[in-house]
Design goal:
With 126 residues, the protein is α/β, with parallel strands linked by helices. It has 3 helices and 5 strands; from the N terminus they run βαβββαβα.
């Protein structure tokens, strides 16, 4: 599955207004369908899903924010690639404990969040 990146502020603002959002102890998940332009292709790209990452100054200095975003990127590569629903944009927002939380607990947080918004796909072979 191809995962693209959200980089434009307008996409982040669109997801901020989305109805599909939930907070877990280690992260906040926002999701919305990829907008379609006239035709059947998603606007701008051929990715199955797109992901954006946010860590505000509230969680710490640049070192803490970058560590949190790196951990969220790995989560997206491992979990969203296999269990995320194609055709959706996702934003993962770091929380205070994201940088120091146990990685297995972060994985559980993302699984919980995907399940809660109804976008958890069953793993192949189950």
């Amino acid at each position: 599955m191809r995962i693209g990146r959200l980089k434009k502020r307008a996409d982040f603002l669109r997801l901020r207004r989305a109805k599909l959002r939930t907070a877990a102890k280690g992260l906040v998940l926002q999701a919305a369908p990829i907008p379609r332009m006239s035709g059947t292709k998603p606007s701008g790209s051929s990715e199955d899903m797109r992901v954006g990452f946010t860590a505000t100054k509230r969680i710490g200095n640049a070192v803490v924010r970058n560590r949190a975003k790196r951990r969220l990127r790995v989560l997206a590569q491992t979990i969203l690639a296999q269990r995320g629903t194609p055709g959706y944009d996702y934003v993962l927002i770091a929380r205070d404990g994201t940088g120091v939380r146990d990685f297995a607990a972060l994985q559980d947080d993302l699984h919980y969040s995907l399940k809660r918004v109804g976008l958890l796909r069953e793993a192949a072979g189950q």
